[in-house]
Structures are given as structure tokens and as C-alpha cells.
Amino acid sequence: MADEPEVILYTDGACSGNPGPGGWAFILRHLPTGRELERSGGESETTNNRMELQAVVEGLSSLNRSVSVRIVSDSAYVLNGLSTWSKSWKKNGWKRKDGSKWVEVKNVDLWKRLDDLAASHKVEFSKIKGHSGHPENERCDELAVAEWHKFK
Question: Cα–Cα distance between 125 and 36 in angstroms, integer?
Fold first, then answer.
């Protein structure tokens, strides 16, 4: 069994339309002290995947030193990208195969930032089902939705 993380990062993103106004949110919990940090933000024109990524970027950016962190998300896109896909994307210059040609990875700016941030921490992942009553996921969703409502 892996060592327990020092920090748990709960994240979520939301979008009204795809593209459309969107929001991101995170809850960062320091397990030894129980202290929490909660933040959210949004953009007037974005996608759900960008907001899911932005939530993790913002959460990891708020850490002021290298820690063991468990990222808890309902986004298979984020978790698969971080744990699996990004290795080959990096090896291929942040490109992926689309049929017979190579194309730039979507949201490459956020993936590169996330890759840099994750490299400075010991990261593990937990996938949860969205909208299933998970308290922190529900809170992050509430915050993210409130952010995109600011643009309506």
C-alpha cells in the first residue's frame, strides 16, 4: 500500500454549452492539520475539459512546496491524461495521432502546465463518479457552476 498522501486535492469543472461560459473549483485539504483551501474561477468562453484541467492546475499551483498529493476528480479526461496519455504526448512533442497525421494535443497549454506542476509532487489519482453525493465533489461542482453563472 502506498504511503498516505499529505494533501488531497478535490477538483471539478463545469460548462454551460461546450464551448460556453465555464467554471472550475478545487478544495485542497492538508491531512495532518485538517486545514482546507477552497477556490474557484471561470471564463466567459471555454470548454468543460479546459475547466476540469484548470481546476487541477489551480489546485496544484496553490501548493507552496513539494508534497504527496492525491487528486480526486470525476474527470476521466484529466486522470487518464495525467496518468497515461501525457507520457506519449510528451515523447511525441505534445502531438497525437489523428488518423494518418499528427496533430497538437487539445488544451496543450494546460497539459504542459499540469505536467510541470505534477512533476514537482508525488501524485496519485482517485476517480470518483460525478453527481453521486460525494461531499467535496458536490461542493466543487456547486462552486464551478456558480462561476459560469457569472457570465450569463
Answer: 19
